[in-house]
Design a protein that fits this description.
Helix content is 84%, strand content 0%. With 177 residues, it is mainly α.
């Protein structure tokens, strides 16, 4: 009886290993980059049985299907929840390090995106200020041009008045002689 129990255990282990290594329709869809079909297949597979350690591969691939940029079923929150579960909850998953790494990249990306958004907002604010300053400069340039024109007119008037004054002086000098 012990021999048959050992044989049954070995047979079960071989069967589970073979099943785990045989690509499912969801795996084929994932490999073909049909992430919507893959995600639906993985969701069905996970819902059909209670949570087991063998689900790690399914949850990891499902997280990737939700995370990849060209996926039509992108859901970053769902992907992060799946990855966080793989990275932090026991039993230790063979996907733990990869999930933690991807979460770290996601956090770094979110930080970089926040910094880029802040930079973009600051740049937009500065562009608005620059346009306002350009308008102010244009107005001041126009005023300066008008003042220069006025100054030129006044200088011309002073020159005419100096000439008239000189003529009057000349007339006065001739009278005195």
């Amino acid at each position: 009886m012990r021999g048959s129990l050992a044989a049954a255990t070995i047979l079960a282990a071989v069967t589970l290993t073979a099943c785990a290594s045989m690509p499912t329709a969801a795996d084929r869809a994932f490999d073909a980059r049909d992430y919507a079909t893959a995600a639906a297949g993985y969701e069905r597979a996970l819902a059909a049985k209670p949570k087991t350690a063998g689900d790690d591969r399914l949850r990891f691939r499902l997280a990737l299907a939700y995370l990849l940029p060209d996926s039509p079923v992108q859901d970053a929150a769902r992907a992060q929840a799946l990855l966080a579960d793989l990275a932090t909850h026991p039993p230790v998953s063979p996907y733990r390090d990869a999930a933690a790494f991807i979460l770290g990249l996601e956090n770094a990306l979110a930080t970089a995106q926040a910094a880029a958004d802040a930079f973009g907002a600051d740049l937009s604010r500065r562009e608005t200020e620059a346009k306002a300053l350009e308008g102010t400069i244009r107005i001041r340039d126009d005023a300066l041009q008008r003042q220069r024109a006025t100054l030129a007119d006044l200088q011309a008037q002073i020159h005419r008045l100096q000439e008239e004054l000189q003529q009057l002086k000349n007339i006065d000098l001739r009278r005195k002689r």
